[in-house]
């Protein structure tokens, strides 16, 4: 374990993350990775919070309704712009 490890995008990053996600999903289905450190993904604060909110919705639904890994996947995202696809959350 390394304290405060920082995501580094290299040529094998996506393959390594995909393998890790697959292993965790099969071995620890109740473990949900969210935020910058949990996903080892560079997310700003609003993206990190959104991954947590979408994960809570998945847990409450009992299935994967949202894919938190798609948050901040748009390279054209700008603060306050329209590139971040808005994901409507169910009303309570």
Cα-based radius of gyration, to the nearest Å: 14 Å
Low-confidence stretches: none
Approximate strand percentage: under 5%
Please write the string of helix (H) and strand (E) elements: HHH
Shape: globular
Which sheet architecture does the biggest sheet show?
Answer: none
Count of DSSP-assigned helices? 3
Q: Which structural category do the helix and sheet elements fall into? A: mainly alpha
Terminal residue distance: 39 Å
Number of DSSP-assigned strands: 0
| Helical content class | 40-55%
What is the residue-averaged pLDDT?
81
Key descriptive features of the protein:
92 residues; mainly alpha; 3 helices; globular
Description:
With 92 residues, this protein is mainly alpha-helical. 40% of the residues lie in helices and 0% in strands. It has 3 helices and no strands. The model has no long low-confidence stretch (mean pLDDT 81).
């Amino acid at each position: 374990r390394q304290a405060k490890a920082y995501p580094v995008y290299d040529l094998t990053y996506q393959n390594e993350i995909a393998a890790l996600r697959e292993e965790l999903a099969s071995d620890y289905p109740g473990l949900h990775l969210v935020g910058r450190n949990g996903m080892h993904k560079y997310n700003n604060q609003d993206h990190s919070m959104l991954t947590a909110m979408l994960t809570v919705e998945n847990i409450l639904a009992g299935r994967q309704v949202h894919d938190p890994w798609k948050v901040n996947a748009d390279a054209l995202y700008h603060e306050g712009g329209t590139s971040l696809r808005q994901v409507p959350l169910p009303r309570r």
